[in-house]
Fold this sequence. Notes:
Layout: H1 4-13, E1 18-23, H2 24-35, H3 39-42, H4 53-63, E2 76-79, H5 81-100, E3 105-108, H6 112-128, E4 141-146, E5 149-158, E6 161-165, H7 184-195, E7 203-207, H8 208-216, E8 220-225, H9 230-237, E9 243-246, H10 257-266
Parallel strand pairs: 3-6, 3-7, 7-8, 8-9
Antiparallel strand pairs: 1-2, 4-5, 5-6
Helix pairs in contact: 1-5, 4-9, 5-10, 6-10, 7-8
Amino acid sequence: MLSTGALRAHLLAARLAGPVATSREVSLRSYRLFAARDPRVTLGLDPGRVWGERDLLRLMADKCGVSDDPAHVSGPDVIDPERTVAGLEAFAERLSDAAVRRAPVLFGTGHPHRLLGFYAALADALSAVGCTVLTPAQGRRIDITTRFGVRTYHLDYVRGVALVREPGVRAPGGGTGAHTHSPLPLRVALEAAADARGPLPELVVGDHGWVCGAGQLGIEAIGLADTDDPALFVGEAEGRVAVAVPLDDAVRSAYYLPLTRYVLNRACLSQ
């Protein structure tokens, strides 16, 4: 079992918390765009109130531990490891609740290169205790607007975790997928599940548009978010996202393994 102290030390050593790779400039740019309701950073969330840049800075200071000083405009951003630990505890509690009631769960990530293994281990554990891990709309085409224009992707699942791929990049079933913030994959998956009259998710686990898109539709959603992802923390503040865990979401995939073990243990899902 990984102790809380050992987890905290790992977060700092792996730069999952403490000074992180996400720069202050990038974070502040995201807050400006979110205040302007730019869909690239709202991630499918329609905020219930007006969030100005100063409001967002105060919120992110409270939720993540970033500096609330608007004059601090450069250098690495900072995540308080205590807030990360608290977020992982709340995250594990929601997984445990889902396991107890054998809830159908949908996993999805916009960071497949980094976070696929983390989510896949959770999907395996929930499946092992009787939860249905949903995989609707396998192979479905999705047109997503990017900074390069509209790009066509296909929805795929790897070990129960949804991701999108560019056509022809790699055969289905492999781990390589595309980075995306879009809520469209989540919406396509839900529509397919509803059309098939199968179970709908009672919990969505993931990041970016998977979490915000689900929360906007009233589905319990939990996920991971970096300092430049204010949408998940706004969703949490407004009661639409159940848990947003602050951490760097783009470090080496192996660095998330201790978090996997910690969460599974706290959720009483370790095998």
